[in-house]
Amino acid sequence: MTLRNGIVYASLALSVLACSDKNGTEKTNTETTTVGAVIESEKLKFTVDTLTDKLDNPWGIAFLPDGRILVTEKKGEIRIIKDGKLLDEKIENVPAVYDHGQGGLLDIIVHPDYANNGWIYLSYAKPGEGGGGTTIARTKLNGNAFTDFQDLFSAKPFADSEVHFGSRIVFDGQGHIFFSSGERGTKENAQNLGNHLGKVLRLNEDGTVPKDNPFVNTAGAKPEIWSYGHRNPQGLVYDKATGELWDAEHGPKGGDELNKVEKGKNYGWPVITYGINYDGTPITDITAKEGMEQPVWYWVPSIATCGLTQVTSDKYPNWKNNFIVGALAQTHIARVEVSNGKYVKHEKLLDKVGRVRMVTQGPDGYVYIATQSPGMLLKIVPASN
């Protein structure tokens, strides 16, 4: 590690490796640099600030109006970053979590009107009968302790599976939250409207069911469902300018997806997929079927998509409206250009930075990245010309 101007920089080698056009053909640039030095990507020169490298499996990032940053750790702790430094103090009164496999303390997000209502929303794997299940809660913060904690919803049924909890949360600014739920490793759940697994769900901010949800009047269907046929969406973003909801979700071996998620639609898993089983055997022999949506873009081989944000900030004018997607297995971030709902191209950035769990745009307009092994919180800063 090196220190400059009071900011810690990791001496980790990074590469800006590739661009892909709409045919998926990659153009390779083998230039290698280090965090803290200027990185020349296709449309932006930038540096990477390391706010901390002392996190333990970070998962979600939330920004408080007073400048503090809260970072969830999967084991069930919430760390505080203040004035660019990781504090020893941690948030108290965090709920007990089902810390098994991919389960644990997951996403965190501050209500858009936090200054007036004080609500912070969490997703976590809650222990219960049958194992654990993705749960959405809200709480308030008094000093460094949670108060007024309320569980709003749990995806049912709970399962003893250690995989596919989904659980990203976004607000639409119209009184609703969207959140994702993985199919918990049982493929058939995703097509079954009688459970919450393998779905994107929509609630009113108080946890009640909106009357205009698509399956409210469908016999046997869970009324919280917004869309179905998902495998494990761990990236979710709502475009307030267009009213569009997008997800990034894990495929199996191949077939990670970027989807425009629309009301009542079926996204195909496991009936259609561009992936195969981890042992190399086929899951299905079709990649398209009438009544099932195609991804806007998919990755083969898988990059293990995790975390998704859309650049709306003037900090990155050449990236405006692009999506930034984290990659766990392939340890980079992907900048994806979409025009009129159609894929244009993507660029691989920060290759070998670590397992990227979360990417988000902060209220200061900068893009923040949380990585596992090492557990870092990074900030992308445009370089002056």
TrEMBL record:
Pfam families associated with the record: GSDH
Annotated ranges, domain Glucose/Sorbosone dehydrogenase: 55-378
InterPro entries, per the entry: 6-blade_b-propeller_TolB-like, Glc/Sorbosone_DH, Quinoprot_gluc/sorb_DH_b-prop
Annotated SUPFAM superfamilies: Soluble quinoprotein glucose dehydrogenase
Gene3D superfamilies cross-referenced by the UniProt entry: TolB, C-terminal domain (2.120.10.30)
Taxonomy, superkingdom: Bacteria
Protein name as annotated: Glucose/arabinose dehydrogenase, beta-propeller fold
Species whose genome carries this gene: Ohtaekwangia koreensis
Classification of source organism: Bacteria, Pseudomonadati, Bacteroidota, Cytophagia, Cytophagales
